[in-house]
Amino acid sequence: MPKAFAMIMAGGSGPALSVLTEVRAESAVGFAGKFRLIDFPLSNCVNSDIYNVAVLTQYRPHTLNAHIGTGTPWDLDLTSGGMHLLQPYQGGPYGDWQRGTADAVRRNLDFVMDQNEENVLILAGDHIYLMDYRPMLRQHAASGSDLTVAVRRVNPHETHRYGIVSVGSDDRIVGFEEKPRRTRGNLASMGIYVFRKKVLVDLLTATEPVDFGRDVLPAMIGGAFKVQAHVFPGYWADVGTVQSYWEANMALLSENPALDLYDPSWVVHTRSLERGPVKIGANAQVHGNLLSNGCCVDGTVHRSVLSPGVRVAEGAIVQDSVILRDVVIEAGAVVDRCIIDRGAVVGAGAQVGSGDDNTPNLESPEVLSSGLTLVGRGCRIGPEWVVGRNVILHPGVVTGEGGKKKSRLIPSGASLGEAAR
Predict the structure, then answer these.
(1) Which of 79, 161, 311, 401 ranks highest by number of CB atoms within 10 Å?
(2) Is the pTM of this model over 0.70?
């Protein structure tokens, strides 16, 4: 197999994920209960026999760094190759804050040039997919390409979210449109690139591109480079918005989900905390869920994804929701169509995601308008409080005792930050 090392772009802030990325990098956001987004490209690498992997960080990296550690869960704790965490730095010709994906690699060209492999595999740190990179590397070598781009077909109604490529004979890419409002094609770039290392180094040394999709790919297609498409037929999801994140989690609850997390031949590795087994109480009712280790359920949970350590008290109801680690939902509380971040507490008898009023969020209507309610990390919702739909509770918000807000109602479309407590 052609030799390659991987560079995973994990430094983005992901503002469209709202409260989930106010406290962590996008690639450190939890998914499918026990995993984080970064687990998927990391696992794909080692399952594809790529054991030289660099993760480029920048925005709020602490959670991500702690999760990756030395790379032990992915067998990347090696003395040769293995896991490299590349942080932004000052000094030298390239040191400073990274402005985009290509700029991030350019600021680490010394690392790139020190590697022995002749190809560079560039990956996003926030996409959900299970992919063997070896066929793409073989195609890249056999075709003599300067750049090979992984592509897949997307829903024609969602092409505005992606970079759309046009392919000519022999799978050669002949055109590219970045997030077009209208287009006839639906072959989207997955943000997965294989470069010949010399080509990449020469290009990043001669110019100062910011992003691979916006700058590098169009320039290479329009220049004297050979750019090939590698068509990927499997499941792939860009969960960069609140809605797509919720939908990708909910899709795992179908009878035969497109993303198979139970395939013993392609294990998704992660850093797992030691937790007890799931405990289901005598009066509990659970239907069509994903329940992670350490969950204790005495109430009703329907079509929801519960991360490790979640507690649902007797009489509480959770439905159509994504609940992250160590959330406590007290007796009689109702949680409907919500995403609740780590360590939050929903008080007894509270209703979160209540009513039929679907007023878009007034602070961020482009982020939240479908009826979901977001509860940030460490929030505490007081007993008997009612929280409407399309509500954003920013991390650390407390309602009830100690709070300044007197009403027990947070209407649909509202937002509360720490200053509004």
Answers:
(1) 311
(2) yes
